[in-house]
Description:
Layout: H1 9-22, H2 29-51, H3 55-65, H4 72-88, E1 90-97, E2 103-104, E3 107-111, E4 114-117, E5 125-127, E6 130-138, E7 144-150, E8 157-162, E9 181-182, H5 185-218, H6 225-257, E10 261-265, E11 268-272
Parallel strand pairs: 1-8
Antiparallel strand pairs: 1-2, 1-5, 3-4, 3-6, 6-7, 9-10, 10-11
Helix pairs in contact: 1-2, 2-3, 2-4, 3-4, 5-6
Amino acid sequence: xxxxxxxxxxxxxxxxxxxxxxxxxxxxxxxxxxxxxxxxxxxxxxxxxxxxxxxxxxxxxxxxxxxxxxxxxxxxxxxxxxxxxxxxxxxxxxxxxxxxxxxxxxxxxxxxxxxxxxxxxxxxxxxxxxxxxxxxxxxxxxxxxxxxxxxxxxxxxxxxxxxxxxxxxxxxxxxxxxxxxxxxxxxxxxxxxxxxxxxxxxxxxxxxxxxxxxxxxxxxxxxxxxxxxxxxxxxxxxxxxxxxxxxxxxxxxxxxxxxxxxxxxxxxxxxxxxxxx
Length: 277
């Protein structure tokens, strides 16, 4: 540890006094004092911030006390400490993707309530060691938070975030938003059922009519009542199925024309019944 560490803070102030004496006469005493005092304050503050593991703030103070205008004794220690702090400070990279695997850059990032990126660029973010709350706010979607424990010296740690698909791709100028489409699954099912019912009804109707015709030409008027009733039942059932097919077919046509629209949104999609004839 350098001699001008916390054990010997008076050496830093001695360096200030020595530099002030050696300053050329052209500089005023107040200028010398202001610069040197600022250097020593930054020197002491950097040591305190390092002890608190606030490394990113310590770097700012070290940049001040390692300047050429600072006493050589102070600047030399600050240069050494800067190398140590840069090795200890961690960095993370935030990457956002949609469920389809598409990258999104329109995501704001905040750490412990302080915004650090207004838009994702792939650049690394310096973070102090310890536990932090990361907040990701995609454009057009609710923000989400997660707690992350960052280790000292960890470099370029990748934080992947799953965000909703963007309804209007903002990364492509002039891109059109996806158009709403109609949800027609129900009318398709009803239409298919109508076809099946109509086919079954026509089959039974024809079979019942054929059976009745055979009874009239073969055994009338001495035909078995049960045979006559069975033929008539086929006709009645066939007519019922045909009537049901007409109802299902009408409902399918109505729903086809009035089908709800699927409107894309930032967090998925929603149905609207805004159709018209």
